[in-house]
Specification:
alpha/beta; Rossmann fold; 2 domains; seven-stranded parallel β-sheet
């Protein structure tokens, strides 16, 4: 197949990493793959070019640059002559639908990667984007959701359920694997005492991610284990970050909690942890950080948000959202298992990802979905 992906940009992010892994996997499987971006210069572009994947910059200059960037997309599609234009998320989905009349023989596939129900925290533009997506969805030949949660959310807001297929994310288990050297290096950088259990969240500092719940659970754990240490990896809006730092200080965590800031996510970060946590209140779809941590041999404690419980299976523990006491109990239970049998716990977590959520499974499932669309199924 000739496949052209369309995405906002290729800077650091879970969806962007997924697109790169999928494009490279499809290329290795013999397909002709290219990627168009609205905003060029992303960190992942060179990785794609090294694998022989063409990257095209549509040079969108801002929110109101619609006509000219649309015209550049139309010219590109006519030059590339893809069988399938696979859009990745909101802006790309809308552009693909609007441009469809200019290349009616090309199959349009949308990508849905969000299950967020309450859009108020993201403002009017995001809510308008959802409304426009619902109105334009009949123009898509198929919709690929990356989780059951995203599929349910899409149906709930009015997207045609008969067009939606679920293809879970895939994790590169060669890139994400236990890294003992990285573990010792980062724990030294963060001044974690030797032998101290380290519990952490890898997530942007965003209201939907549940950091206040994690911090309150951490305070409960700290009152029971004087050796426990905590880390938050990720960044967010300055005002929100300051509110979290104040809360941590009020909870007495200032000397036991590291704010690591934004980093490119690597095996070393997950390997530095003993237990990985995702305390989201709601709105998760397929959180890559959970599966990546598991691929690095780290058991996870997650809340009942999106497909997090499905990813974890029986390798970790699940707690209700917004309940610090339940989250603390779950973390302590998993930590006890880790300290009793680190090797076995690590192997079970990694094996589940390798079997169920590898990049190879992502590529195979996507191939089947796209071949069905191309064949008119």
């Amino acid at each position: 197949m000739r496949i052209l992906f369309l995405v906002r940009g290729l800077n650091v992010g879970g969806a962007q990493r997924q697109l790169v892994a999928l494009a490279r996997g499809l290329r290795r499987s013999g397909h002709d793959v290219s990627v168009a971006v609205f905003y060029g210069g992303g960190l992942f572009e060179e990785e794609l070019r090294k694998d022989g994947i063409r990257v095209h910059d549509l040079a969108r200059t801002g929110r109101w640059d619609t006509v000219w960037s649309l015209a550049r997309l139309v010219r590109l599609v006519r030059a590339e002559t893809p069988d399938i234009l696979h859009a990745y998320m909101g802006l790309a989905n809308l552009y693909a639908a609007i441009a469809r009349p200019f290349f009616p023989s090309v199959k349009i596939v949308w990508g849905i990667r969000s299950a967020l129900e309450d859009l108020k925290v993201y403002g009017l533009v995001t809510r308008m984007g959802e409304w426009l997506g619902r109105a334009a969805s009949p123009l898509a030949d198929a919709i690929i959701a990356n989780s059951e949660a995203a599929r349910r959310r899409a149906v709930a807001i009015g997207l045609p359920g008969r067009k939606i297929m679920v293809v879970p994310n895939g994790i590169d288990c060669d890139a994400f694997r236990p890294d003992e050297e990285g573990r010792h290096r980062l724990r030294g950088e963060w001044a974690i005492p030797a032998g101290a259990p380290l519990i952490g969240m890898v997530a942007r500092l965003d209201p939907v991610k549940g950091h206040p719940t994690f911090l309150r659970a951490a305070a409960r754990i700290a009152s029971l284990r004087s050796d426990a240490r905590f880390v938050c990896v990720g960044e967010g809006q300055p005002a929100y970050r300051e509110s979290l730092v104040r809360l941590a200080s009020e909870l007495g965590l200032a000397d036991r909690l590291v704010w690591a800031g934004e980093r490119r996510v690597t095996s070393a970060i997950y390997s530095a942890l003993d237990v990985a946590v995702l305390a989201s209140d709601a709105g998760e779809s397929f959180p890559n950080v959970v599966a990546e941590a598991m691929a690095c041999g780290r058991p996870c404690v997650v809340t009942e948000s999106g497909d997090s419980p499905l990813i974890v299976g029986d390798t970790g523990c699940i707690a209700p959202p917004g309940d610090p006491e339940a989250l603390a109990r779950a973390i302590l239970g998993v930590l006890e298992r880790v300290l009793a049998d680190r090797t076995g716990t690590s192997a079970r977590a990694r094996d589940r990802v390798m079997v169920e959520f590898s990049v190879e499974r992502l590529v195979t499932r996507t191939e089947r979905a796209l071949e069905l669309v191309k064949g008119g199924g």
